[in-house]
Amino acid sequence: MAPTKKPFWADQAFVTLATNDNYAKGAMVLGQSLRNHSTTRKLVALIGPHVAEDALHSVFDEVVMVDVMDSCDAANLALMKRPDLGVTITKLHCWTLLQYSKCVFMDADTLVLSNIDELFEREELSAAPDPGWPDCFNSGVFVFRPSKETHEELLKFCTEKGSFDGGDQGVLNSYFNTWATADISKHLPFIYNLSSIAIYSYLPAFKQYGHDAKVVHFLGKVKPWNYSYDAQRGEVKGHSASPDPCQMHPNYLLQWWQLYAASVLPLLQKAYGDGERHEDAREQPRFPPPPSLRLSSAERKQRWEAGQIDYLGDDSFTNIEQKLNSFLK
């Protein structure tokens, strides 16, 4: 007797966001990990206007370009030492996906370890506790229902009250402010959003429960794609900003790179060729921006002065710091 095929839910989707090409790599790894674990839901990627999208179509059912929004909250972002998080407000566009009845949002720096379609049995807003402040939920993984009204209310909330941390997590926790106390069924188990930060802050719990993890979240400034990978040796090579891969838990970091090398890298090479490689041929090629989106210095300056700043791309703190160091030398 043939095994029963799981039904495909065309009106439900996993959704992620990429505001630059590095996060697009992460999104492709996330999407491929969902497919490898036989999800029965559609995959949707929201992307900023400067993201090369050709390869994304190989993994996602739908690629939607959205405007990049920014909280412009330098003070609170400075408290977290993460000026790049302001554009995460763009995540609020996920409520505009009205063609879907229910969705699960997942940050592009997450990796799925097993099938998680059961998350669609939860209601809005279901999420796991944040390891830094457990009475807040972490907005890296959450269940929601697209709604024009909710989207408009969230934008109005941002305008009137802002975000207590300068990013989407502060906005969403303030808007869905009964999450901590109202309905325990909306508290996702931590295994659906296991952060590397929590692994080392409570190692005994990780040893006890870590084998049940379903989603790993690579929280922090340094991401998996900031490292490099020696495919011949099957080893992850350290990053200059964080030379010890163990800060990210080596097993999960290796799984990310193995999936990238086996499934995502061939798609990138097919879409963009090998012309934009790093000096080390064993490392990953960059997403080359489409020719129409390559900005001249004058155009970048004009965008900066107009407040159109690519915090996660060319205008990231890291790139600015490198430019200043070069100038000072």
UniProtKB/TrEMBL annotation:
One of its GO terms (biological process) is glycogen biosynthetic process. Signal peptide: none annotated. Residues 275-285 have a biased composition (Basic and acidic residues). It catalyses: L-tyrosyl-[glycogenin] + UDP-alpha-D-glucose = alpha-D-glucosyl-L-tyrosyl-[glycogenin] + UDP + H(+); [1,4-alpha-D-glucosyl](n)-L-tyrosyl-[glycogenin] + UDP-alpha-D-glucose = [1,4-alpha-D-glucosyl](n+1)-L-tyrosyl-[glycogenin] + UDP + H(+). It is found in: Cytoplasm. The keyword Manganese applies. Its main location: cytoplasm. Glycogenin participates in the glycogen biosynthetic process along with glycogen synthase and glycogen branching enzyme. It catalyzes the formation of a short alpha (1,4)-glucosyl chain covalently attached via a glucose 1-O-tyrosyl linkage to internal tyrosine residues and these chains act as primers for the elongation reaction catalyzed by glycogen synthase. Self-glucosylating initiator of glycogen synthesis. It catalyzes the formation of a short alpha (1,4)-glucosyl chain covalently attached via a glucose 1-O-tyrosyl linkage to internal tyrosine residues and these chains act as primers for the elongation reaction catalyzed by glycogen synthase. This is glycogenin glucosyltransferase. It comes from Xiphophorus couchianus (Monterrey platyfish).
